[in-house]
Amino acid sequence: MKTSVKLNRQIRGFFIMLLVLVGFFSCKRGSDEAKNYQNIEAKGQQTAELTAPPFVPKAVGDREATKLVVNMEIKEIEGEMVDGVKYTYWTFGGSVPGSFIRTRVGDEVEFHLKNHPDNKMPHNIDLHAVTGPGGGATSSLVAPGHEKVFSFKTLNPGLYVYHCATAPVGMHIANGMYGLILVEPEGGLPPVDKEYYIMQGDFYTKGSYGEQGSQPFDMDKAIKEQADYVVFNGKVGALAGDKSLTAKVGETVRIYMGNGGPNLVSSFHVIGEIFDKVHIEGGDMINENVQTTLIPAGGSAIVEFKVDVPGTFILVDHSIFRAFNKGALGMLKVEGEENKKLYSGTIQDGIYLPEGGTIQGMPKGKAVPKTTVAKTVPEQIKAGKELFDRTCYACHQSEGQGIPNAFPPLAKSDYLNANPDRAIGAVLHGLSGEITVNGKKFNNVMTSQNLTDEQAADVLTYIYNSWGNNKTVITPAKVKAVRAKPAPKVAQEH
Ligand SMILES: [Cu+2]
């Protein structure tokens, strides 16, 4: 009897313990899920550091919630979409995308929106991080030469898009009026070695891709969603050449990636890397080991990866014509020791020519017959540079330096200087098979470039008259003569 009473007590005690424990954990989970940051007190006051892309302000770390003053100035400025193509951008802070704003959850943001007196348009701001009407837009419509102030409390951690929401909204966004605001969780995001800021955007111009001169916005194409340019950070080549992102082998890289649209979604991918982590849609959920992440218009993602091998890693929208034909291409240059265990490089280098080894060509478009007066050499060089910066630089690089083991240099190229006809042939017909340029072997494929005689002459004249080459001048007539000869057999190239 006595023992059974004792046992009963023990069992009861155990159950009570269990109930308390269950209660405790469910309580904790509950409060986590509905975490309420409304009551966090903002202490003191700071002025927010704002940065132009691809850079971000310093991390919030473990600072307490504060009153954060943001001074944002709207500027309408003329910029360059790609060499020789002028475009009037409307910007938050003078850059596309606009200045990066970095806050923590519980901050009270006092937002000062200033519209520069030289501007022509009224603007406002809708921040997706705001809980309130229009995300702030209803309180912030500001005419040129005026300032509007409103404030909001950051209630949800995450990476948010902001944009102008003044009618016609699509036009304001299409002109570059978007950016990112990061709301870090309590204690901040885990530290990484490198952080960068990128936003994709689609642009619509009266002329088609690369058409020279000042190009106004085209409403009709915007409505039809027929983008002429799809770019990272507001222009073609914003993240290429000496403006490439950089990292060292062994470092962790975090990219705050947004999509301003106005129309297109982005299939964001880094060639030769795998995202170790993706904060899906800029929220709390983390996916791991991701190849390509989808970023909606007006949305974002935070991607993180460690770089393990050196090389140039190409950032693209994997809707791939956008990358290679409309500008959605950036570069991350990683320096450091090679690691042959992780990546061997070419092990064998042989020739394989099934059924004639035909070179892929661009589909032949309708040739645009143009009757023009013959250009002077400086005119040829100028036109050639524009063409080069649009068409050839992606592989041969902006200073013709090429990429080791992949794309041969055009700068001081002995291969080029030795034989102009052969160079013309390469541009007209494409080139494949092993060649040796400045003592280094290349065995890759250059597609036929589908250029007119005049274009081929201009681009080659530019190349011959740049970067220490031998100043040969190539005339359209010379190109025509080479074109008339049959294309060389691929295997005879070297
Ligand atoms: Cu606007």
Task: Please give the number of β-strands.
Answer: 23
Total domain count = 3
Named at the architecture level, the CATH assignment of the largest domain is Sandwich
Ligand inventory: copper (II) ion
CATH topology of the largest domain: Immunoglobulin-like
Low-pLDDT sequence parts: 22-34, 490-494
**What's the tally of helices?**
10
The average pLDDT value, as a whole number, equals: 89
Structural class: alpha/beta
Strand content: 25-35%
Could you tell me how far the N terminus lies from the C terminus, measured between alpha carbons in angstroms?
Answer: 102 Å
The CATH superfamily name of the largest domain is Cupredoxins -  blue copper proteins
Major sheet characteristics: 6 strands, mixed
CATH uppermost class of the largest domain: Mainly Beta
The backbone outline, from C-alpha atoms, is: globular
What is the helix fraction of residues, given as a range?
10-25%
Radius of gyration: 28 Å
